[in-house]
Amino acid sequence: MDYTYVTTKKVIIRSSRACLLYNLTLSGLFFYFIIYELLVSNGYMAMQSVPVTTMVQAQQPTQMKGTKQALCDTILDDCHSDFTDLAELPYCQQSTKHFNYTKRNCIRMDALENDMHIGSGAMLLTTHWEYLNQDVACPQERITCSSPDVYTNVEKTPSFSHVADIERWWIWVDHKLGQNRANAVGSSFRTQGYVQYPGGHVEKIQMCSEVADANQRDNMFCSDEYGDHLHVGKMLRSLGVDLDSLDQDLNMTLREKGLAMLLNIQYANHRPFEVARFFSGSYGELTYTYKVETAKHDIISKESSRSLESGVPSKKRMRARKFGILVKAQADASIGVFQVSTLILVMVQFGAMLAVAATATDYLVTTPWFAGRHSAEINDTYIREFSVHEDKVTRLQLAELADKRRKSRNHEEILKAHSIDPNLDSDSANDSEV
Questions:
Q1: Separation CA 330–CA 325 (nearest Å)
Q2: For residue 60, how many other CB atoms are within 10 A of its CB?
Q3: Do residues 286 and 381 both lie within one domain?
C-alpha cells in the first residue's frame, strides 16, 4: 500500500506588482470587515426589529394665565388659548394686510374641534374647510317621502373658511417601545430624542420644563409626560414649505388643498465605534430620532357632519369637508444584542474572502496580462526559476531563459521516448546503448 501525504508548497515570488496587488486586497478586506462591519456597523450585534406604538394629536397655541409658560394643559382653568389676532394674518378677510391670493374668512378652533383622527398614528390637522347646513328630507313622522335624498341643502353653495394660526399649533406624538431582548425601556418621555432635519443637521429635543419662555416656542421641540410636542411652524420652515404658496395646476394654495407630513421615528441602542461596550457587557444608550418629510398629494380632505338637533336621523345637521395637513407618525426600532454566532459569522466571511483573494492573486500572477509575455512563456515550461528577481531582469534575458527551458524540455522528452533516463550523464548513456 502506498502511504502518501499531500501538502501545499510555499513559493516566494519576488514581484512588486504581485505584492502590491495582494496587500491592497488585504487592506480593502481589513477596512471593510474589521473597521466598517465590526467597528462602524457593530457587526458583533444581532439586530432585533421591535414594534413601537404611536399616538398623534394636536394642540392649539396656549399660555398659562399670568406666566410666560408656552405650553399648558387645556383642561386646567388657568390654561388659555393664545391665538394671533386675525387682523395680523394676511390670508384672513378680517385683515387689511396685502395677500397675493384669495382671502378667506378665518375662524378659530381648539384641538377638540380641529383634530380628526385617521387610523392608527395619523390625524388631519384642518387648515381650511367648506360647510353648509342641511335639513332631513324625510322626517320619521311622514309615511311617504318623495325626496330621493336623506338630507337636502339649506344653502345652494357652501361657505369657505380658513382655520387661523395653524403655523403656531403643536403636534403631540406619544410613542412607546415594545418588549425586546436587550430589556430596553423606551418612550417619548423617558428616552432622549432628536430631530434630524433635511441636510443632516440634528437637534436635541429638550424637556418642556426647560423652555418655559413663550417667546421661544416658535423655535423649539420639547417633551413632557404627555409625549413630544412638535411645533407645526418650525417643521414647515425646516422643510421649506409655505402654506400660502400656490399650486399652479389646481390654482389652490397649500392651505386650501392640504399636504402630507410624515414623522418617521427610529429607536436604536447602537452607535458607530461602540465596540468597547462589548468588553463591558453593556449596550449603548437608547435614543430615538425624528425624520420629518413631506409627500406630494393633489388634495387631502375628509368629510364629517355635526348634528344640530336631536333625533336619529337628526332633523338638522352641518356637513363639512375639511382640508389640511395629514400627519402620519410611523415608528420602528433596531435594538442590537451581542451574539457570539453573529460575530463568528462575520469572521468566517472575512476568512473566506482572504482565501478568495489569495487564489485570485495566484491566478493573476501567471497570466500574460499581469506577468508579461516572456514570464508567461517561462511558466508554460512548468519550470520556474524563483531565484530570479523579475524586477531586475531584462526582457531579452527573459526571452533567452524561456527559449533555453523550452529546448531543454524537448530534449528530455526525446530521451524518455527512447527509454533513456535524462538524469544520466552522456557517457553512461553511450554505455547503455552499447
A1: 16
A2: 23
A3: no
Total domains, the chain: 3
> Are 40 and 274 spatial neighbours (Cβ–Cβ below 8 Å)?
no
Instruction: Residue 326: name the closest of 240, 239, 237, 263 by CA.
Output: 263
Q: Contact at 8 Å (CB) between 221 and 289?
A: no
Between CA 6 and CA 13, with CA 8 as vertex, the angle to 5 degrees is 155
Task: Look up the CATH number of the domain holding residue 78.
Answer: 2.60.490
CA distances from 72 to 22, 44, 222 (A): 66, 45, 13
Over the chain (434 residues), what is each successive 10-residue block's mean pLDDT? 69 74 88 81 75 89 74 84 92 93 91 80 91 84 72 89 92 87 80 88 85 63 89 91 90 92 88 55 74 84 84 83 92 80 84 88 74 62 46 68 69 63 54 42
Same domain, 67 and 177: yes
As given in the structure block, the three cell numbers for residue 410 are 524537448
Altogether, the residues listed in the chain come to a count of 434
First to last CA, the chain: 37
Question: Nearest 5°: phi and psi at 251?
Answer: 55, 45
CB crowding 181-209: b at 16 or more within 10 Å, else e: ebebebbbbebebebbbeeeeeeebeebe
Is the same domain home to 235 and 262?
Answer: yes
Asked whether the beta carbons of 182 and 335 are under 8 A apart, the reply is yes
Q: CA 206, CA 195: separation in Å to the nearest integer?
A: 11
The reply to whether 3 falls in a domain is: no
- Residue 30 lies in domain: 12-44+339-365
Which residue in this structure is represented by grid cell 368629510? 303
Q: Is residue 351 part of a domain?
A: yes
Are the C-beta atoms of 99 and 276 separated by less than 8 Å? Answer: no
Q: Is residue 25 domain-shared with residue 171, that is, in the same domain?
A: no
Same domain, residue pair 40 and 59: no
CA distance 162 to 176: 34
> What CA dihedral angle connects 33, 34, 37 and 43, to 10 degrees?
120
Give dist(CA 219, CA 233) in Å, integer.
9
Q: Are 240 and 314 found together in one domain?
A: yes
